[in-house]
Model the fold of this input.
Amino acid sequence: MITNNKELADILLPDVKNSPQYYEEKYPQRNLPQDAIVTRFGPSPTGFLHIGSLYAALIEKRAADQTGGVFFLRIEDTDKKREVENGVTLLLDGLKQFGIVPDEGVVGEESEKGNYGPYKQSERAEIYKTFVKELIARGLAYPCFCSQEELEKSRSIQEQKGIRPGYYGKWAKDRNLSFEEIEKNLKEGKTFVIRIKAPEQKGKTIKFVDLIKDEIEMPENDLDAVIFKSDGLPLYHFAHAVDDHFMRTTHVIRGDEWLPSVPLHIQLFEMFGWKVPIYAHVAPINKIDGNSKRKISKRKDPEAAVSYYREKGYPSESVIDYLLNLANSNFEEWRMENPKAPNTEFVIDFVKMGVSGPLFDFVKMNDISKNVIGFMTSEEVYEKSLDWAEEFDKELAELMKREKEYTIGALNIERNSVKPRKDIAKWSDVRPTVEFFYDDVFEVDENYDFSENDTKENINLVLESYVKVLELGNEKEQWFNHLKDFAETVGYARDAKTYKKNPDSYKGHVGDVAMILRVALTKKRNTPDLHEMINVMGKDRVQKRFVRCIEGI
Ligand code: GLU
Done:
């Protein structure tokens, strides 16, 4: 016969070995400076890393780093249905690519680091049970035997009557079962979950300060939330309280979909007499869809997956710069003042984070990335774009490796100047900027994009004559003066002004001559600097291309 809550707790959870005190001692307060932030990233091992999760993880990591704190990774795998094989490895690799390496926690499929583990929730059943048992023994939680059908029925009645749905007040059927009734249900072998007994409502609200959303006031929780399932694992809310207490988390930084649950979470911390952590709820990244704004969605948007950025070839620094820019709008100003500084030097500030979600904008993302790549050396661009091409554009990788120095030369054009070139936002943009340098790619077709005003006769004359006077190695200014002189010898004005004064006396001006040379060398009108291209291509190749153009068109 059960006569009190303590006995009930013993019957429901007979195999709990340790006392709550045991865990208090096993996981002592961390010995860190007062302002150090201890925070965590708590993904489910689904293998999918959402851009919004990377964003949150970045904020968490930086918050810990900049205060001399700890950033740890906890795997939230209590929902076994969502798990995929190698999910942890995929997550860790995804984070690592962006320089986010946890200080503590799960560091491999089967490995952990740190004194506050285990860091996988599925391995913490023993701990959760101790505290579920504690709540039952204190009359603050109870077994609920309601079947799925019963719950659905009561929900549909609530809906029909227009009442707030949920298991609370008089709708919490098993809240006041007698010990006899509980015993009878147990004898009949009915399965049960454990629910908290939400404190009686006195029409109160709770107030708390969120680091991002500021002061918040919400009604107190009155739902008898499920904290423990029949499979012996806890639900999120309960695991959050137990884990973040014993892992000595100071700041819970997480997606703002959890904001409505804060009253329940605070209630759980208070039931145990634990210090409530500081909350910071990060608004999701949004996008414009038609006329409205919505969250970037895993189901609808390819850019939701972090792997998308790798496939397109965005350098990880660019993605991080962009996310920091979304997090704190003063990042842009900081970047302007510190164009080459590693972004780890930027100090993030919760107060400057938007309360509602920032808008993801590829134009901005590309601009930021062009800047990041613009400051790289040609060798770096070569190495990084080759790494990317090895995986995503094998043909390009072969060309780059076969003509390494030539490729670096091509990538170096307009790079080391005051205003570096800004035509590469991602490694997949490298191909169009270099492929015409390779003869075998250049020679596959004869589609020269000459202007309609350039007759074949003029083109041939310019090319044939220029071949004879072509000189390499000059400074740009000297080279251009030489080109102006040359223009005059083939019937073009030496500059646009002269041409405009007497358009009938010339075929065009020096700019038109340069364009003919450019198209003959590249087939395109829009290319990097002509003078530098000529020097990188070398005399033989330039001559060969001119001859080819003369003969081919
Ligand atoms: N597993 C939870 C989620 O993915 C973690 C939330 C948290 O950080 O507390 O949403």
About this structure: The first strand starts at residue 38 and ends at 41. The mean pLDDT is 95. Residues 51-65 form the longest helix (15 residues). The chain has 24 helices and 13 strands.
